[in-house]
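User: hey, got a sec? need Cysteine methyltransferase folded
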Amino acid sequence: MRAELLEQIYTVVAQIPDGRITTYGRIAKMTEGATARMVGSAMRHLPDGHELPWHRVINASLKVTDHGGAVNQRAKLRSEGILFDAVGRVPRECLWP
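Assistant: Yep! Here you go:
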């Protein structure tokens, strides 16, 4: 992935406010050519010591994608006041932007 595209993804993710979420696809649309899959890859390969709110990025179904850090991601979102419905979806009202 081009360095400038990766920088665009990280810049958008850094702007997601506390208590809000967005999707891989929404982030991709805010860049100059990234796809949702590329955003997911960028989130998986964050450098050690980063402070990006990666946990605020979820899939288009408004669910946390099933991965090794999913339990931690849900816990971080809950700590910010994000609630999940009975099937694990986040309410649309939490979407940013």
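Quick note: The chain has a mean pLDDT of 97. Let me know if you need anything else on Cysteine methyltransferase.
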